């Protein structure tokens, strides 16, 4: 794999760390600014919404900029947002810093996916995308726990300062290692927008929202589920998240490897197994060992869908994939926000802390149904194309010559 993928992975590591580390630092931030925990939670919501909005916005603004230069500009925006967060004199300024940093998120992964795929041979594209996303998954194993530990013991401002420094390393790596990639000639914004007329692109994005949403329906409420249902101590939740992160790393690499060989079968297996495991989590959550194993499996199966779904969008939006790729990253965050909201509804309705697992299983099952529908439509369109190419009217038998 080219060294340029390492630079992209470093940038992804920084972005993944800043996205998730705030969840473990909400009490410290709330205490410093004198706001409630739910108010501090706006730092999570604001970031997610910033990704959803920023993914298409920043990609559209960058349509006339070479991809390497755009990646560098996005890392600069990421650095600025985290520095603003580190020195924020008021909660509102911290929220602005979070949103500024989030604007770079979707476009970085969207453009980065296109660049990663272009750096390797056609049969290695999903693996290259997975290599870049490894930075995001490793962030959940190393960056988030370490950032939380530093924030709790030294100060949350130090955490954001260190994340900004990571951004500087990523920026330098991109400048040094990523080759110049001029903007593709003849591709304009209207070409990028035309990709959204393709039903297969929209189906892939819907699979992204529902499939990854299934993961976060359960993981968003992992703390109360593990402490109140499984019986873990509060301090053990961090280690549960590390297990989840380790599962993500393994699933991401496996998903990238097998998506290059058999993309749709990989989606069938990962989404189907994810639905089953999430449903079983309602039972395994009552046992410490079974719960820990299940959490790792959810991380692995959930992230095994990421490289094939991202490659599916790139394949279906061929010729003008950048905007569709970035919007698909926003779809992951939309799924996170939607599933967290639905999980909160069932808990508030009195169904218990394991109820979000049923929500997640339902979402993953819906994603599997969409995958089957997508493949069926593709086979139908392929058959029609074959008929047209042979010159035989649809619905009539092919003439036999003796």
Automatic annotation (TrEMBL):
Bilayer disposition of the protein: Multi-pass membrane protein
InterPro entries (UniProt xref): MFS, MFS_dom, MFS_Efflux_Transporters, MFS_trans_sf
PROSITE patterns for the chain: MFS
Compartments, as annotated in UniProt: Cell membrane
Entries under Pfam families matching the protein: MFS_1 (PF07690)
A GO MF label: transmembrane transporter activity
Keywords from the UniProt entry: Cell membrane, Membrane, Transmembrane, Transmembrane helix
Taxonomy, superkingdom: Bacteria
Membrane spanning residue stretches: 42-61, 73-96, 102-121, 128-150, 156-178, 199-224, 236-254, 266-283, 289-309, 330-352, 358-377
This protein's GO CC annotations: plasma membrane
Domain Major facilitator superfamily (MFS) profile positions: 4-379
PANTHER family on file: CHLORAMPHENICOL EFFLUX PUMP RV0191, PURINE EFFLUX PUMP PBUE
Protein name in the entry: MFS transporter
